Amino acid sequence: MANIFLVGTHWGDEGKGKIVDVLSQEASGCVRFQGGHNAGHTLVIDGVTTILHLIPSGILRDKCLSIIGNGVVISLEALQHELQDLIDKGITIDEKLYISESCHVILPTHIALDQEKEKSLGKKSIGTTGRGIGPTYEDKIARRGIRLSDFFDESNLKDKIKKLMDYHNFLLKNYYNSNEISVDDTLYNLLNIFNEVKKYICDVTPMILDVSKQSNVIFEGAQGTMLDIDHGTYPYVTSSNTTFSGLISGTGIGADKVDYSLGITKAYTTRVGHGPFPTELTNQLGLDIAKWGGEVGATTGRSRRCGWLDCKILKQSIELNRINGIALTKLDVLDNLEKIKICIDYGPIDYKTFQVEDIEYIELDGWKTSTVGINNFDNLPENARKYIKTIEDISSTPIVMISTGPSRDQIIKIRDIFK
Ligand code: IMP
């Protein structure tokens, strides 16, 4: 039995959804602890694609509880849409989904403020998903936010939402010269949705503790290490702790309950949104990798920037998240390449130009043959095995899983991490 923390080692979109899905077969719980519906986890099961933004990927398994911890910010509208989509696909939700009453709620004014702020930053914008994530966390830290628990006391909720939205509307009107949003309409809409979903809301910490003592639990990180508010490429980051510390504060369980940290690393590196990206390929090859890898954001539909695997960041992620093993994803995307580079080091990042000095790469021969769907390590071409071994040597960390395609069965399991 083991409780496993899954974290993207770079800027998100490493393919966590698929790895969670594979592992959830043997798990009784799948827990989200930070972020919101800015995340996008794509799962392909029997040829059917499901994209989850808010609900933990374990929901697709009959015997797995899906738990949203207190560190997550909730859009009630997004939750309602996602639930409807799952119900339409015939997936059972009741008695499988639990949401912390301490989650903060995203208001329409948070979304408007997020988008207005981005507009006002012009070329220096962060490239947020525009979903109100940052402003909701701002209000949480300022101790004026609205939690799901507030919805259980309607008259108090009205006062709280009015006070907060008056402040937001003041900013929207007077600072951003934009439209105000109706408090009454907001209350009406949110209360309607709340009444539909309140059966899922409770104190989840004891439940997480309980399940984690008895059976395998997966803690599903969203975004990636370099988007962490403290340790990422600030200010081009998201507004939560995406790393190991976020798991602890975002669930209320102790660090000793986590037995294994699995870093999810894509065989190359990608980033959506703005900000530094030392190994970015701004040439045709970058576009080709994006095409082969289908590198389009699951949440925003934006193209992802592509580059060589950045092992300097990988090593930082391993330290920050106490990573024990790596799941290497999308190996097959590199099948066509004659030569493949791995970045091992560079000097400090200049946050004005996003440039780095003294970037060092090692170059390896590609394997030029399809690895799609291979599920036995020994069947990989020799040069692919060399690529994997090189990453293990540089990072001093074992690669325990390799993904060779989007489906559940396109996976090489080198070690059973639950044992
Ligand atoms: P926000 O989280 O919407 O505030 O966006 C902040 C930054 O995080 C932007 O660069 C986004 O593109 C990025 N981001 C947010 N969620 C994800 C994700 O799930 N994958 C990759 N990047 C993300």
Describe this entry's structure for a reader.
31% of the residues lie in helices and 19% in strands. A hairpin with a 2-residue loop joins strand 3 (41-45) and strand 4 (48-52). The mean pLDDT is 95. The chain is built from 11 helices and 19 strands. The radius of gyration is 21 Å and the shape is globular. The chain has 2 domains: 3-95 and 203-413, Adenylosuccinate Synthetase, Chain A, domain 1, CATH 3.40.440; 104-200, Adenylosuccinate Synthetase, subunit A, domain 2 (Orthogonal Bundle). With 419 residues, the chain is α/β, with parallel strands linked by helices. Helix 3 (108-121) packs parallel to helix 5. The longest helix is centred in the middle third of the chain and has 22 residues, at 154-175. The structure holds inosinic acid. Inosinic acid is lined by residues 11-13, 38-40, 126-129, 131, 133-134, 222-223, 227, 236, 238-239, 272-273, 299.
Which key terms come to mind for this protein?
419 residues, alpha/beta, Adenylosuccinate Synthetase, Chain A, domain 1, Adenylosuccinate Synthetase, subunit A, domain 2, ten-stranded mixed beta sheet, three-stranded mixed beta sheet, 31% helix, binds inosinic acid
